Amino acid sequence: MEPVNSDVAAEPEEAPDAAGSPAVATLGQLMLAVEELWPESLAEAWDEVGLVAGHPSAEVTRVMFAVDPTLEVIDEAIEWGAELLITHHPLLLKGVTSVAANTAKGRAVHRLIESGTALLTVHTNGDSAVGGVSDVLADALGLQNVAPLTPAADGLPEEGIGRVGDLNEPMTLGDFAARVFGILPSVAGGVRVSGDKDGLVQRVAVCGGAGDSLFDEVRASNADLYITADLRHHPASEAREAAVNGRPYLIDVSHFASEWLWLPAAAEALGNVLADQGLDVEIKVSTTNSDPWDFILTPG
Q1: From residue 259, how far is each of 156, 168, 192, 219 by CA, in Å?
Q2: Is the pLDDT of residue 19 over 60?
Q3: How confident is the model at residue 18 (pLDDT cuts 50, 70, 90)?
Q4: Does 4-37+50-121+259-285 match 127-253 in CATH topology?
Q5: CATH fold of 4-37+50-121+259-285, please?
Q6: Residues forming beta bridges with residue 247, ordered by sequence position
Q7: What CATH number labels 127-253?
């Protein structure tokens, strides 16, 4: 993806100079812009979001967005010259007792700090916010009248986890599955479908990332179809057993692919906020495919 260039207006002390040159952003200013778009208050209680590495006073001229803070992604960001890497998934979601460089996470932390590259995580706050992961997925699939599957406790009515909406016209499950396949990045696992290929669907629920904890909300929404990632055997099997007239049908997609769609939209949104502040920041989406699977064998 081409970089998103952002020329932006800052507070009075950060205003462009007499020659009209845009101001250089600091990491602290980037953090405020990220908070405006994806407030940390929207993150789930178990989640770990926000700044992982970096000094708020450091200058930032280049920002890269990615799904995962893998070593390959970190190296890509460093090679491009990004002073800030924004990832959807946290690097340190679970507690650690060491970041020694003889561990994978330790090597990631050392690479970031030694290169002067900050890391900031936008996870479930990026899922829940307006324009977040599931909103982008719903929009890409052509859903209308979209609402959260689980509204945020203290947020706006449009905020929350998952989305449900309607197609303008019914489609067969087979045709709609082909639409899903067509909009997602290419990954080894492809798209798995459960249901009558010729059955009609119009009301569709989506959740970017792993969403098999939301089946009660999906059923309550009267969705004909539920699209999410990482569907495990037992929740999927139980959903099929509890189905009424075969519904909701299920489409299981790659976790990485379902969330990658958000990255270009997030880069554009951040660029727009920074442009309103007169800050000169170049923004790019990582080209690294961090889906963990390399190939798949299927019958036939």
Answers
A1: 22, 24, 17, 23
A2: no
A3: very low
A4: yes
A5: 3.40.1390
A6: 244
A7: 3.40.1390.30
Query: How many other C-beta atoms are found inside a 10 Å radius of the C-beta of residue 257?
Result: 24
- The pTM of the full predicted model, rounded to 2 decimals, is 0.90
Tens digits of residue pLDDT in 44-98: 999 999 999 999 999 999 999 999 999 999 999 999 999 999 999 999 998 888 8
Q: Is 123 annotated as a binding residue?
A: no
Tokens of 100: 């020694």
Q: Which residues contact 273 (CB under 8 A, 6 or more apart)?
A: 8, 33, 36, 37
234 among annotated binding-site residues: no
**How far apart (Å, rounded) are the C-alpha atoms in residues 246 and 42?**
34
Cβ atoms 49, 123 nearer than 8 A: yes
Do strands 59-60 and 62-66 pair parallel, antiparallel, or not at all (unpaired)?
unpaired
Would you say 110 is a known binding-site residue?
no
Give me the residue spans of the domains in the chain: 4-37+50-121+259-285, 127-253
What DSSP element (H or E) covers 168?
strand 160-172
List % helix, strand, coil for the chain (3-state, nearest 5): 35, 25, 40
Four-residue CA torsion sign, 131, 134, 137, 139: negative
